[in-house]
Amino acid sequence: MKRLIRRFFLVLVAAVLAACTTTPEKPPAPLPGAGAPSLEGPLVVPPLSALPETAPRPLSGKFARVAWTDVPGWSDDDLSGFWPAFLRDCRGLMRPVSGSLAMPARAAPRAWQPVCAAAAAQGASDPAAVRRFLQAWLQPWRLNGPDNRPASNLVTGYYEPMVSGSLQRGGPYQWPLYAVPNDLLTIDLGSVYPDLAGKRIRGKLVGRRVVPYDSRAQIEASDHKPPVLVWIDDPVDNFFLQVQGSGLVRLTSGPDAGQILRLAYADHNGRPYVSIGRWLADHGQMPLSQTSMQNIRAWARRNPARVQEMLDANPAVVFFRSDRLSDPSLGPNGAYGLPLTPKRSIAVDAHFVPLGTPVFLATTEPGSSLPMPRLVLAQDTGTAIQGAARADFYWGSGDEAGRQAGRMKQRGQMWLLWPKQAGEPSAR
After folding, report:
1. SS3 for 391?
2. Domain containing 85 — which CATH number?
3. How confident is the model at residue 21 (pLDDT cuts 50, 70, 90)?
4. Which domain holds residue 79?
5. Contacts for 347 with CB less than 8 Å, ≥ 6 apart
6. Residue 147 covered by a domain
7. Residue 104 domain-assigned?
8. How many CB atoms lie within 10 A of CB 33?
């Protein structure tokens, strides 16, 4: 009887999840409790005795130990600028493990303690010294799929948009980006049933019932909208900033004109993501192959009366928070709780690659067959980033980064770089 009740509950939850979860193209926010480390001051590595042993988490991939000479393109990547990103990554690697199965798997702190201690002692390094350090301390492991064959998968790109906005509504600034509503409920199912670790539903209370949270159309029609953080002057910019999950807003009016705000993903309404490009194609407005950001923006200018109808086709809404813009050269925090580094951070499937792991990515330039070998850091996740060697490459912020990200649909392979003394890659 207990098994039947549990099975019924799981079926019920699956139905609720189908109605209440969203799969936006890029939700880069850290899960609650990720604990972003301070980036101020020199890197401090705790002694090994201060990092307790924790139970390992299984990884879905297989790993084959290889020599550095077997990593294609390893010597071709210019490692200029990689060292500061690696030291930042060590700050994340040295955080204690929370033990929460709701969080993505991450690299084991004890495995990395000797490496990060040596890195902190070494200080700044030129590219040749960085390569020598990595080769001395780390071992490359080729990532294989569950079938134990070398994994090859899709490599896409993402970026941080920069848009124009105002803190007050007026003139062209008519498109709101919202903060988290006070009545939004987020229910962590894994806290009750470990089998559902990482599964959350979002909704709100109506009387004594939990119901799905309002769709985009319902929010816009409501008299009780979420608090507005900023107003954007272009509906397509507004939409794509939500798809990317974070962005920079240059204030262009009022007493705060000239300032730049960073909006970071905070939560979402739990509704499924629907492509407005698909909506335009299905309604005969343009072929699906032509639904670029530029063409969608041009359509919106020609059809201002139908813009809200187009946007309402996507019921998903992303909510934001304002983040301090301490270093404009760094991106928003990824799922690992660290700022993303342009062209050095990727989103991965943490079932195969633990967050915090240095990864050598062998892929090609966007829209090209030219090799693009790149040493990167696994610092983010995404609902569309699933499977062995699947990656999303962070290009940075602004229009050029957006163009590169939009063109990137390449194939790639991965080699995880893991401490030599620690055996094959593992997760906590």
Report:
1. strand
2. 2.40.40.10
3. very low
4. 54-158+329-422
5. 26, 28, 158, 334, 335, 378, 379, 380, 381, 382, 385, 391, 392, 394
6. yes
7. yes
8. 10
